[in-house]
Design goal:
about 210 residues; mainly alpha; 8 helices; globular
Length: about 210
C-alpha cells in the first residue's frame, strides 16, 4: 500500500480491515469478549461501540507517544507497556462516561468493560500500527497518523460486525432445538468456526 490518502484507497483499506483481515476471524484477536458478550445483540453492539471508540483513540495516542516520545528518547522497547498504560486510561474514561450517561449499558457490559484494557485486539492494533510502519516508514511521513487512526477505527468496525453477527445468531439459537450436549459454549464455538470459514471467502479480495 502506498501512503497516499484517496477515497479509493480508504475504501479498499476499510474492506480489508473489516472483512478480509477481520481481527476476530483472521487474526483471532479479541476472542474473549467475542464469546463472552455476544449473547444479546444490544449488549454486543454496546461492547463493539466501546471497543471502536477505544481502538480509535488508542491508535491516535499511541502513535503520538511512540513517534514523539519513545523514538526521540530511544525508548521504543517500552512501546508495549506504554501502550497498555494509554489503553487503560482510555478505558477508564469510557467506563466513567457510560456509568454516568448509560448505566443500563454499563451494567450489561459488566466485567467485560474494564477488560477492554486487556483486550488483545486493542493492544494488537496499536502494535500493528507500529510494525506496519505508519510511524517510521518514509512513505507514511505526511499521513502516518491518519493511516494509524483509520486502521484502528476500521479494525474496530470489523470487531463490531463480528460480535453483532455472532449475537444475532446466538439469539436465534436460543429458540432452536439443539441437542443438550451442544447447548451453550459448544454450539457457540461451532457457530464461530462456521462464521470464520464464511469470512475466509473475503481473503484475497483486497
Amino acid at each position: 500500500m502506498n501512503g497516499n490518502l484517496t477515497i479509493g484507497s480508504i475504501l479498499l483499506f476499510m474492506v480489508s480491515c473489516v472483512l478480509s483481515n477481520n481481527y476476530i476471524f483472521s487474526r483471532y484477536l479479541g476472542c474473549c469478549p467475542f464469546l463472552g458478550v455476544s449473547s444479546k445483540v444490544e449488549t454486543a453492539v454496546g461492547m463493539g461501540a466501546a471497543v471502536t471508540f477505544v481502538m480509535g483513540l488508542a491508535s491516535l495516542f499511541t502513535f503520538l507517544v511512540y513517534k514523539y516520545l519513545l523514538m526521540p528518547l530511544n525508548l521504543t522497547y517500552l512501546n508495549t507497556i506504554s501502550f497498555i498504560l494509554v489503553i487503560a486510561s482510555l478505558v477508564q474514561f469510557v467506563e466513567m462516561f457510560l456509568k454516568k450517561f448509560s448505566p443500563v449499558l454499563y451494567k450489561a457490559l459488566g466485567i467485560y468493560l474494564p477488560l477492554i484494557t486487556t483486550n488483545c485486539a486493542v493492544l494488537g492494533v496499536t502494535i500493528l500500527n507500529i510494525t506496519s510502519g505508519y510511524a517510521t516508514d518514509a512513505v507514511y511521513a505526511s499521513n502516518g497518523l491518519l493511516w494509524s487512526v483509520l486502521n484502528g477505527v476500521f479494525s474496530a468496525l470489523g470487531f463490531l460486525l463480528a460480535i453483532t453477527l455472532m449475537a444475532g445468531v446466538r439469539e436465534r439459537l436460543e429458540s432452536s432445538k439443539i441437542p443438550e450436549y451442544l447447548k451453550g459454549f459448544p454450539i457457540s464455538l461451532i457457530t464461530a468456526g462456521l462464521m470464520s470459514v464464511a469470512f475466509l471467502g473475503f481473503v484475497g479480495l483486497v
